[in-house]
Design goal:
The chain is α/β, with parallel strands linked by helices. Helices cover about 35% and strands about 20% of the residues. α14 links the parallel β18 and β19. The model has no long low-confidence stretch (mean pLDDT about 95).
């Protein structure tokens, strides 16, 4: 089958985020199954300035209307490190910027126009490819208007929308509807209007042929008022076309045995290498060496959704012991400030680094003993998959995909390989941390749990097969309709 994936994020962007990893690993896994897969994404400044990525001009340009203005879309092409075909949509008015969605925690004011342009330009790309794609696979709100444009213009593409992150919906002022150039019938209850605003994600939910999300637990959560961010009713009404597919970990990039970014590789039967990585991590960040307690770590977005609301109040208690803590990530300026203050208060115990660094991210995974995942919502739980592979046992709140990835340690039955809390509160998460610290002192038990965790396999093969089945169903339906 011929599949064009459309996403605002993907390789060769170098940043922490599940979507970038998915857009690298899923197309690669589908290609391995014999499908023709390409990815369309904006040509950001970061990509243009990447010396390791080489793009070529296709010579194709298209005029794209956004409201009363017309912009030129230029199409470039290249290949990801894993060999996947990339199409890069260039419009410097929209994408020659320091950030993807905004800067310093503040979204760009013209994000509605930016991603309306991107969606329209991606549809125009699909129309010009030879042979044309059979499936347009959209990812999250920035591409969620593509099914609306496909339906509005009666285009011969089947559409699949994957919801990775329901909280971000692409919600903008109602006046921005004019930028779509759609007929006013699309700005209704049965269209992209949502409480007087334009809602990109709602449009995708209504008009896509199939919907997927990234874990069975998250599929159920997103249809509840507590976790649906207002779209739970829309999702329940469209649950007949919603499928949960647990995403996988990209073990080509995240495997301690073959990871070239580590000072030394290791596996579950040779764990001494992890101690080398632990020492290199603390020394490289100028933290005091050889703590008696565990090294904690996080590679994440520093936002409320990731649990900083309950983690920050526990930092003083955590760092009063002989432990080390490393956090890598950026996001909400208030939480960034709180972490920076704590790092100054405990300079030999806590290192906070705001700007993403690929090598440091890998060394943190390898060097930490315990991964902290206090998330309020965690749809897929990719970070937990990586931590398990690197032998960093997770302390996590049981939410979304976490419940399908981490098994809570039960000393009575000697089963499990992580430490879960079920209430979203500082005290509940602190209790889970204390359980982990107590078991960490039992070195034989801890080593056995590490080996068990590292043996878990969350490869992309099963997920790719599930997507393949959805694509095949849509292609079969299209062929029958055309017959």
């Amino acid at each position: 089958m011929r599949i064009l994936m459309i996403s605002a994020e993907g390789p060769p962007l170098a940043r922490a985020g599940a979507l970038v990893d998915v857009m690298d690993a899923l197309p690669h896994a589908l290609r391995a199954r014999g499908h023709e897969v390409a990815v369309a994404l904006p040509f950001y400044r970061e990509i243009r300035e990447n010396p390791e990525f080489k793009e070529d001009d296709t010579g194709i340009t298209v005029d794209v209307r956004v409201g009363d203005k017309t912009y030129i879309a230029e199409y470039l092409q290249g290949r990801s490190a894993s060999g996947v075909q990339l199409f890069l949509i260039r419009c410097d008015d929209f994408f020659d910027r320091a950030g993807i969605y905004g800067e310093n925690g503040v979204p760009y004011e013209d994000n509605a126009a930016r991603f309306i342009f991107f969606s329209k330009a991606a549809v125009e790309l699909a129309r010009r490819l030879t042979p044309p794609p059979q499936i347009l696979h959209l990812h999250d709100w920035p591409a969620a208007l593509v099914p609306v444009f496909v339906r509005a213009h009666h285009l011969p593409f089947a559409t699949v929308l994957t919801i990775h992150h329901l909280a971000d919906q692409g919600s903008f002022w109602g006046l921005d509807f004019r930028l779509t150039n759609l007929h006013e019938r699309f700005f209704t209850l049965r269209g992209i209007e949502f409480f007087g605003k334009v809602n990109f994600l709602k449009g995708g939910i209504l008009f896509a042929d199939k919907l997927t999300t990234v874990s069975e637990h998250y599929k159920r959560e997103m249809q509840t008022p507590e976790c649906g961010y207002g779209l739970d009713i829309v999702l329940r009404e469209n649950a007949f076309k919603l499928t949960a597919i647990l995403h996988g970990a990209d073990y080509a990039r995240w495997n301690p045995e073959t990871d070239k970014l580590l000072p030394i590789g290791y596996n579950s039967s040779s764990l001494w290498g992890k101690q080398v990585c632990r020492g290199a991590l603390t020394a490289g960040l100028q933290l005091a060496p050889a703590p008696s307690g565990p090294v904690f770590g996080m590679v994440t977005r520093v936002v409320e959704e990731k649990g900083f609301q309950i983690l920050v109040p526990a930092l003083d208690r955590l760092l009063s012991d002989d432990v080390r803590l490393i956090i890598l990530g950026e996001g909400d300026p208030a939480y960034e400030t709180a972490l920076a203050v704590a790092a100054r208060k405990f300079p030999t115990k806590f290192a906070y680094r705001k700007h993403y660094n690929e090598k440091l991210a890998h060394v943190i995974e390898a060097g930490m003993d315990i991964s902290l995942i206090p998330s309020r919502f965690e749809s897929a739980g990719l970070s937990a998959m990586y931590s398990l592979k690197y032998g960093a046992l997770p302390v996590a709140r049981a939410t979304g995909g976490i419940q399908e990835i981490i098994e809570d340690y039960d000393p009575a039955s000697d089963s499990g390989y992580g430490f879960l809390c079920y209430e979203y509160s500082t005290e509940a998460f602190w209790d889970a941390i204390k359980r982990a610290r107590a078991i960490f002192r039992e070195r034989d038990v801890w080593t056995k749990l590490m080996a068990h965790a590292m043996e878990r396999d969350f490869s992309w093969a099963m997920a790719a097969q599930s997507y393949e089945e959805i694509y095949a169903e849509l292609v079969h339906a299209s062929e029958e309709a055309a017959a």
